[in-house]
């Protein structure tokens, strides 16, 4: 009886093992996972203090303006058609809503781009054809949190998109940003984030 049971169990084990081994022999090796898209803002580490150089507090900078830092990214996913950069101050409440301060909204950055240079000039369009806007106007708006209070959190968010969005600049940066955010839904392939802290020197 024991010998019969042992034979049945062994036969079942062999029958299970044969197709499994065949599948293992014929299966293609799994492709390595693509590296995550990364974003880097020059001049300070992720989570560190934004230098005064890139803020509204820099010498000679007009209110609401500033020198934009060099930004670079890598590992954009296959199929990327454009990029969208959203820089915003997370600590600002606008009109009693969840809307925060728009410091730099840049969309339709070409898929061939791997960054933005330091000191992007003012104007509705960048040299690469992308649009830009901020709460100040069609330009980069440097961090400007007051000296009397906590440091504000400034976030740079980069989205890789599978499309070029059909959005023109609206009346202001907030409406424009909302339009871009709506247009990118269902088209986001990847996202990378980089943050900095800032408040004006005493």
Task: Give a brief description.
This protein has helices at 2-26, 173-184, and strands at residues 38-41, 48-49, 71-74, 82-89, 101-110, 115-116, 131-133, 152-161, 188-198. By secondary structure, it is α+β, with helices and mostly antiparallel strands.
Record the SSE blueprint.
Blueprint: H1 2-26, E1 38-41, E2 48-49, E3 71-74, E4 82-89, E5 101-110, E6 115-116, E7 131-133, E8 152-161, H2 173-184, E9 188-198
Parallel strand pairs: 2-9
Antiparallel strand pairs: 1-3, 3-6, 4-5, 4-8, 5-7, 8-9
Question: Can you give a write-up of this model?
Answer:
- The chain is α+β, with helices and mostly antiparallel strands.
- It has one domain: Phosphatidylethanolamine-binding Protein (Alpha-Beta Complex), CATH 3.90.280.10.
- It contains two helices and nine strands.
- The chain has helices spanning 2-26, 173-184; strands spanning 38-41, 48-49, 71-74, 82-89, 101-110, 115-116, 131-133, 152-161, 188-198.
- A six-stranded mixed beta sheet has the order 2-9-8-4-5-7, with helices on one face.
- It starts with a helix and ends with a strand.
- The model is unreliable at 12-16 (pLDDT under 50).
